[in-house]
Amino acid sequence: MTSIDSGISGSAVTNALILPNIIYPVIEQLDKSGYKDIQSELRRNFYQLEEYYPGFSHQFLQSFIHKQMPSSTTNMNELTLKLEKYCDKSSYCISSSRSEPEFHELNIRSKNLKRILSRIPDDINEKREFLETIKEIASAIKKTLDSVTNTYQYFKTSDGRQALENEKKEFIKYSKNFSNTLKAYFRDNKRDDVYIAANHLLVQTDYLLRTIKLYCETDALDECLYPLISQQQQNSNRIIPTSRYSSNNSRQSSSSSSGNNRPISSYEINYT
Questions:
Q1: Could you read off the pLDDT of 91-113 as tens digits, one per residue?
Q2: Which of 152, 205, 216, 257 has a 20 to 30 A CA-CA distance from 9?
């Protein structure tokens, strides 16, 4: 797939968050104006446009902002991160159909992690406050990982457990990247790198929740909920969960599949 504009500024991960953090919340407000009947179709259309033309949402938003405020400059890396705390992402969480306390704890801890990450643009201006925020993030990462580990017992297939293990490794990788980026920030003061690293953690947290929902809930996933971002399958051992495994029968029949043989969903293949 070809990007609609190869010169678009901002990172791929930030492009991936524009739909869930900016566009979708606006669409959700349409029911207050009497347009509730077109919300689902509008979300799906935006998702498909982004799928076929990676970067479309970014360019669409930038064009709109430029038209309304020609002299303004918007840092999308900062904006997508900052808006996370205002987004209602309850649909990303494990549903109430799973009453086990481990899932409830995971919902709370993952939401808290994303909320603290979204404070970075406000806290980064004051060093003492920012250092406290960093400590909170480190603690929230550990608690989220512990909660993820506690859900392993509810995975019925080895395929599902392996998928979660692989997503967990990716989460740990980006957590370490975030830590290294912070160390570099105190040397070079490049805030944008911090915003991008934090956005990666937001997406990886959603990846973890998505995998758990896929294997532990009976309802089919709404693929349009989740950010699109590239993953080079040939450079990864991850098992890629896809929406066609959302039924119980499909999960069982897929348990013998290997990571390299499973098809990649549209959720995984964009922004290469």
A1: 888 888 889 999 999 999 999 99
A2: 205
What whole-number distance in Å separates Cα of residue 244 and Cα of residue 241? 9
Residue 73 to residue 68: CA distance in whole angstroms: 12
Decide if 180 contacts 172 (C-beta within 8 A). no
Select from 197, 195, 218, 209 the least CA-distant residue to 267: 209
User: Which domains are seen in the chain, by residue range?
Assistant: 73-229 (1.20.120.1950)
Q: Which two tokens stand for residue 88?
A: 């209602």
CA atoms of 46 and 224, how far apart (whole Å): 9
**Are residues 96 and 30 in contact, defined by beta-carbon separation less than 8 angstroms?**
no
Cβ count within 10 A of residue 134: 18
> Hey, what are 231's tokens?
């993953």
Query: Which pLDDT tens digit goes with each residue over 189-241?
Result: 999 999 999 999 999 999 999 999 989 987 777 778 777 764 322 233 444 44
